[in-house]
Recover the amino acids of this structure.
């Protein structure tokens, strides 16, 4: 099991080293490996990819997603990287100052943000916000006077 996980995380060559001999990214991969080998019923990952280079981050996101599906274990994944969140999550909790602003699937939070915080937080490039008012079933953009049909839910 250890050698399988070490191969998966590309750390087989590090198995003989002491923690002080490892870089930050190597230590993170070792920590992930230790968690995987234990086969817990729940995983809690707190910024597990933050010290990895960009290429390895992409590879590890893919591998963590595969592992999640293969192991079928609940995984709580804390990250400030919205690409990681949108890529890995079945459900996302978006917090602002410790208060949940929205809980939903990646598609739900992207397509139907609960508030302005979520709308400006999710997406790259960021969403454009224009001042507007709703009048008689239409949306009038302030400043330009442009009139658009209002969505049905308005």
């Amino acid at each position: 099991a250890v050698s399988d996980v070490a191969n998966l995380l590309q750390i087989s060559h590090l198995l003989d080293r002491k923690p002080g001999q490892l870089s930050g990214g190597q230590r993170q991969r070792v920590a992930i490996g230790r968690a995987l080998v234990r086969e817990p019923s729940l995983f809690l990952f707190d910024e597990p990819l933050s010290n990895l280079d960009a290429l390895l981050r992409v590879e590890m996101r893919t591998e963590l997603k595969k592992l999640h599906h293969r192991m079928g274990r609940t995984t709580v994944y804390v990250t400030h990287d919205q690409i990681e969140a949108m890529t890995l999550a079945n459900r996302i909790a978006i917090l602002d100052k410790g208060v949940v602003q929205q809980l939903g699937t990646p598609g739900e939070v992207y397509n139907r943000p609960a508030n302005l915080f979520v709308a400006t937080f999710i997406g790259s490039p960021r969403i454009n916000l224009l001042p507007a008012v709703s009048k008689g079933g239409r949306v009038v953009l302030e400043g330009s006077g442009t009139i658009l049909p209002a969505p049905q839910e308005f």
Summary: The mean pLDDT is 89. The CA atoms of residues 140 and 146 lie 6 Å apart. The chain has two domains: 1-90, 94-123.
